[in-house]
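Supplementary Methods. Inverse-folding protocol.

Structures were first reduced to a discrete structure-token string of length 250. This string, shown here, constituted the complete conditioning input.
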């Protein structure tokens, strides 16, 4: 017959954190152990990101040899390598497969991994997580993108990171050979940046009904996928917490 025992609360929290981190990583989120300070990243909510200001360039990351677009953890890890290998990169964003056909229709090319090299003003940000009556085309598109920002405060010295030797967390990491350049890096002039900010403020109107229809379909798919993933994480985390409680109460 089991009996509840008094446990050291900090230790219990520590074990719960380890279990939860392991479980969350299993469903596609990049693990960020506190002990690793070399190019660790913070994941933003799906759909909360800057819009179309990718001065570090954009890439198409795909499986080989099928050339099917990568997704989930595979995509995030390969795009992370692209950012980690660029000493100027401060963040990267990955796009879900559902939005690629819309981009291919409008621009004749697809990208699912984009890098940024500087911080941009609040006007460059789009939040597709808010429930509103009519989404702008910026939000329709942004819902399919997930942003990761480099944790500058946790960065170790160049020598310490190089000594890790893992080829992923080091600033000298090599780019992923599964990602090909689609849009070259670009430095925006003040006038070009202001034009983009004005475009975002105006709702990203491309004046193309077919493109808008494709974005709406992609938005619905991406939003459903993001919700399902969040529920999976919630269920796994809850199950892990219950398991930890039972283990500690025996």
């Amino acid at each position: 017959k089991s009996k509840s025992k008094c446990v050291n609360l900090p230790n219990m929290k520590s074990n719960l954190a380890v279990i939860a981190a392991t479980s969350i990583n299993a469903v596609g989120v990049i693990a960020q152990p506190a002990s690793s300070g070399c190019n660790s990243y913070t994941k933003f909510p799906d759909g909360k990101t800057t819009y179309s200001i990718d001065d570090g360039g954009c890439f198409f990351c795909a499986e080989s040899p099928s050339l099917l677009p990568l997704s989930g953890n595979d995509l995030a890890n390969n795009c992370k390598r692209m950012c980690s290998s660029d000493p100027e990169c401060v963040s990267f964003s990955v796009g879900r497969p559902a939005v690629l056909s819309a981009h291919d229709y409008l621009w004749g090319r697809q990208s699912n991994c984009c890098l940024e090299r500087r911080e941009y003003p609040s006007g460059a940000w789009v939040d597709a997580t808010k429930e509103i009556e009519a989404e702008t085309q910026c939000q329709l598109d942004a819902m399919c993108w997930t942003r990761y920002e480099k944790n500058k405060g946790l960065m170790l010295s160049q020598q310490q990171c190089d000594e890790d030797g893992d080829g992923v967390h080091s600033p000298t990491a090599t780019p992923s050979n599964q990602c090909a350049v689609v849009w070259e890096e670009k430095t925006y002039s003040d006038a070009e940046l202001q034009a983009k900010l004005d475009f975002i403020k105006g709702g990203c109107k491309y004046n193309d009904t077919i493109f808008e229809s494709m974005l709406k379909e992609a938005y619905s798919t991406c939003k459903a996928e993001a919700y399902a993933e969040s529920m999976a994480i919630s269920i796994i985390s809850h199950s892990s917490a219950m398991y930890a409680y039972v283990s500690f109460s025996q």
